[in-house]
Amino acid sequence: MMKSKPVRILCLFLAITLLGGVVWAQFQDGFRSRGRFNRDFSPTTGAKNDWEINEKFQHEAFRFARVKYTSYGWRDKWRTDFPESDLNLPHRLRELTSMEVHPESVIVELTDDNLSDYPFLYIVEPGQMNLTEGEVVGLRTYLQNGGFLMVDDFWGEEEWQTFYHNIKRVFPDREPEELPLEHDIFHLVYDLAEKPMIVSIGTWMRGSETERWDADEPHYKGIFDDRGRMMVVICHNTDLGDGWEEEGVDPTYFKEYSERFAYPLGINIITYAMTH
Hints:
Order of helices and strands: HHEHEEHEHEHEEHH
Strand order of the largest sheet: 2-1-3-4-7-6-5
Helix content: 25-40%
Shape: globular
Radius of gyration: 18 Å
Low-confidence stretches: 1-44
């Protein structure tokens, strides 16, 4: 499935040029908000992604794919941070790397026949996930055939247990493994000195450093196939998506979370996914 598509080969050669020689200090000096800080906390519309893609890369450019999945509750958790995060992250990915990036993100379902067209999938807020059997099978097939999944923004033990129950339905014989700080995901493009806990801007404005009383430590876990390839990265007790979505609301939040952690780690994860 994934191996037969040129996108992984293309992105491999593009991704290895990702600012590899740029040191962290240069990033801090050169990375700036687009100037849309909005202190009344009203919604923003995200980046204006109106660039044109080289015609040769129309079908191979990296395209951010958000998963629409089944969940409990009164609202669609899969929509969290949408559409701003799905606009801002590709904008920054194109701005800060040499990767060919599609200006339009896409929403996919795990039962889609063309799921394999997207080598990177993003799931947000899986704390009330309730996958159907079709979604379980679709995700398992996708990952076993070379796909990569990033899971983000869920907090505490109750939400972990709900997600864990669902991912064990996908891979009953595989356990999520805590990634050490030495893992490439934290150093591949940008060198992180810690595993960051990124809180929502609302939580930050209230002066709290965590979203829940039982979420005092961020966890980054991986699920690997039989060859040792990471298929899933799980970002628990942290929220990269809010760092992407809310980069323009407050300059201090931008500096402390978006610039310092959310974009560097997001770029590291995408680069890792596309080059492994």
